[in-house]
Amino acid sequence: MSGQEKVRVSVVIYGKQYTITGTESPDHMKDVAGIVDEKMREINSINPNLNTETLAVLTAVNSIHEYMKLQEEYERILQELNRIKE
Asked: For the chain, which residues make up each domain, given as ranges?
């Protein structure tokens, strides 16, 4: 599949159906939606009184936090590899 080809995929996140569009494979987009659904349910299990909007925002905040931690770890590993190469 070319990187420019738009694909539409129907997914269910937290009990609601969405159509998402992207240039990744349908399986990739379904996997992303599945992870979002899983994270929302995880946060909801900790605090079941949250409304969907707050739950979605907290899911986004937690996801970006995890992304930033992974990015920091990636940079640390790259620096270590560069140090070893020298």
From this structure: 7-85
